Amino acid sequence: MGILLIGMSHKTSPLAIRERLALSCENSWHPLDRLRQMPSIREALYLATCNRVEVLVCAPDQAEPEAGEALKALLTERARIAQSELERCLYTFTGVEAVRHLFRVASSLDSLVMGEAQILGQVKEAYRQAVEHETTGTMLNRILHHAFSVAKRVRTETGIADNAVSVGYAAVELAKKIFGRLEGKAILLVGAGEMSELAARHLLKQGISSIFVANRTYARAQEIAGLFEGTAVTLEQMPEVLKKVDIVISSTGAPDYVLTREMVAAALHRRKNRFLFLIDIAVPRDIEPAAGDIDNVYLYNIDHLQELVDENRNSRLREAARAELIIEEELRNHRAWISSLEVVPTIVEFREKIEGIMKAELEKSAAWRQALSQTDQQHVEGLVASIVNKILHEPTACLREESRNRNGLAYAEALRRLFGLGK
């Protein structure tokens, strides 16, 4: 069974393409439903975040090319663009390289913000959905749980997360570059998710005067606003709130624009030329790009935060090197497990043959064993089973050990010839 990963990230594709693939699965067919129906795919995981979309699948070795084409076709259909345009943004990993990439992603080494904690939760959520859709099995279950333990090791054994900035923090730093100081400024948070909460915590440290929180679910907006002594508003009230605030940070899961150019222009007319700073950290984007063309409006999206992130990134490169060593160590463990899988069929067949011989010989002796008491018969059967287990133990243990040294297939073939397995 082969492992195949195809995807794109902030490193390989523009925001305009990523946001097409990151549309909420609730608004259309879920990719896992389609993946489950593909004959070339046995197991599947679909990961979609602000900065990446990846599909990880297990497929029979001979079916990998077919699976790869099927995945590209699925992503093309979902993005609604030409496959040639999409393929320029894609990367493909197979086998151990696919597992290495997953380990690096879960450990935040491949994140826009190296060391950020959100990606591990996003990988776990993708895994939860895969389990819910029944698209995982022995292979992906083992690989994903291994990825979670690798990420935990990286966070506890290195300083990769020390001084790590979130995207929300980077957005606040960008606001400071525009305004200089944020004391006395009013902020509107659109969306009441984790990203908005993190941004609010950073904003409070800068001495802002007031926070407004708008969300599709008003009760959730009240919950977040209550944490920061802010004011909850409905999405319908946003045009009125835009007249009062200086900064808007938007991070929702909406498939369409939450703030349009028309809404922003109407608010600016009543603001007497005061600057309005818009930060759109949602994928797909929440704010219509044309809003940035309005005088006195400054619009930034998640890709614009890269420069700020890079300034912080340099301080953690040494810790990243230590994290890479951990990943290589864990990959050796993964290879050992994969190698052990290669000899499992031979071990099973070997055990079945020896146990079959034992059962056949016991059946031949059934006539004279009937003269024994039931207790004595059980003793004879137990003795024979014990002898068989002792005979099986040494060659089975040796085969498993050699599989870890990458000699498993040669030893398995020798065992098959010596004992006539498969005949």
UniProtKB/TrEMBL annotation:
Q: What is known of its domains?
A: Possesses an unusual extended V-shaped dimeric structure with each monomer consisting of three distinct domains arranged along a curved 'spinal' alpha-helix. The N-terminal catalytic domain specifically recognizes the glutamate moiety of the substrate. The second domain is the NADPH-binding domain, and the third C-terminal domain is responsible for dimerization.
Give the first-level EC class, as a single word: oxidoreductase
Q: Which species expresses this protein natively?
A: Syntrophus gentianae
Q: Where is the active site?
A: 50
GO molecular function per UniProt: glutamyl-tRNA reductase activity; NADP binding
In this chain the Quinate/shikimate 5-dehydrogenase/glutamyl-tRNA reductase domain maps to 173-307
Family that this chain belongs to: Belongs to the glutamyl-tRNA reductase family.
The gene name on file is hemA
The record lists the catalysed reaction(s) as:
(S)-4-amino-5-oxopentanoate + tRNA(Glu) + NADP(+) = L-glutamyl-tRNA(Glu) + NADPH + H(+)
List, alphabetically, the CDD domains matched: NAD_bind_Glutamyl_tRNA_reduct
Q: What is this protein called?
A: Glutamyl-tRNA reductase
Q: Where is the Tetrapyrrole biosynthesis glutamyl-tRNA reductase dimerisation domain?
A: 322-421
Record-linked InterPro entries = 4pyrrol_synth_GluRdtase (IPR000343), 4pyrrol_synth_GluRdtase_dimer (IPR015896), 4pyrrol_synth_GluRdtase_N (IPR015895), GluRdtase_CS (IPR018214), GluRdtase_dimer_dom_sf (IPR036453), GluRdtase_N_sf (IPR036343), NAD(P)-bd_dom_sf (IPR036291), Shikm_DH/Glu-tRNA_Rdtase (IPR006151)
Q: Which domain of life is it from?
A: Bacteria
Query: What Pfam family does this protein match (any one)?
Result: GlutR_N
Q: What does this protein do?
A: Catalyzes the NADPH-dependent reduction of glutamyl-tRNA(Glu) to glutamate 1-semialdehyde (GSA).
Kindly list the residues the record flags as site (Important for activity): 101
- More details: During catalysis, the active site Cys acts as a nucleophile attacking the alpha-carbonyl group of tRNA-bound glutamate with the formation of a thioester intermediate between enzyme and glutamate, and the concomitant release of tRNA(Glu). The thioester intermediate is finally reduced by direct hydride transfer from NADPH, to form the product GSA.
The residue ranges of the Glutamyl-tRNA reductase N-terminal domain are 6-158
Residue sites binding NADP(+) per the record = 191-196
